Amino acid sequence: MKLKSLALAVATASALAGAAPAFAQPTEQFIPVLSYRTGAYAPNGTPWANGYVDYLKLVNARGGINGVKLTFEECETGYDTARSVECYERLKGKNGGATLVQPLSTGATFAITEKAPVDKIPVVTVGYGRSESADGSVFKWNFPIAGTYWVAADAIIQAIAKKEGGLDKLKGKKIALIYHDSPYGKEPIPLLQERAKLHGFELQLLPVTAPGVEQKATWLQVRQARPDFVLLWGWGVMNSTAIKEAQATGFAREKMYGVWWAGAEPDVKDVGDGAKGYNAVTMQHGAEPQSKLVKDVVAMLHDKNQGTGPKDEVGQVLYMRGAMSAMLGVEGIRAAQDRFGKGKVMTGEQVRWGLENLNLTQAKLDGLGFAGVMRPISTSCSDHMGAAWARIHTWDGKAWKFTSDWLQADEQIIKPLVKSTAAKYAAEKKLTPRTPADCQS
Q: How far apart are alpha carbons 287 and 380 in whole angstroms?
């Protein structure tokens, strides 16, 4: 009797095990999309999200990552830190678990940075976030790939110096920073202060309360101080407002330099000729309507009514930023598959390794459709950024045109700043920097 009961129990258990899909392995790679298509920052957040989602769709249209298809879900954050964290918490465990997260907000990055090591989800911040997180020995789960705000600020100072005839010509000059009064806007300040000390220019700090539609008082200060150059660290409506105020104040747009989030079509199109001469640093790419990537997106998605957003936006600056951001995440997954199993769904931990071991040669980038758009990127345990190149483009009244050669941020200035700031963070959070053995894991 006991033997019969045991046999029945075993048979029942076996049947249940065969029938129950509770422990089935996921077959698709899930990527949460934290986006903002509503609110004050929607005109800038929307094209980024369109480019990001289109690239994920393009990967699927090309056959996936070694056959593994991508699945994604958008969550509207309104560029609000609390809502961004809610979105992250809601999506992180869905569909087998989040592969990685790209918060598209420096404030949200600060908040999610605390959660990622526990959740084992990489935080990819392409051109934003914590500048010191380039130090992978402290920030194991953060990846500010392709550039931080310290790279942007350094490239702008170099560009100004070239225009003036050398870094020594900056001595005695006045440079004003008009910035979004948030963690994002404050990020370039340490780098600019370091450069000011080195070259003897005066740095004037002018915070603007979000969203930045009211800047009369700020530009009154500009008119009184008469800086030689103005740096603009804005987002959304703050950017076009600043350019209009510069026009009204009579400040030459040729003397204005925006960060790469203040150098896209929505920032200047409403100002038109009034923005002519305005400069912005680019995170490698600019508007790239002739790139192979854009041609592939149009042919494989938009021509089949499967694209995201308007077709005529494909290839514009923020659209390209979204596509580039998605590509870097996808290549992290591909690098992980190369080590842990081609054609398999990767865990967040495995993708973290992939992002830390990116080797995007020019040939690889060209093959992905980014020829002429980007330079090679190579990450490591100690370097989670992988490249420090930028260019300047200038609005000619109708379009953005590149007006500088490639500029590389000065590592002799940036590396010590990254190290000291990361060490301070590690001390505050009681973190032990990674060992060489951990770097291999």
A: 29
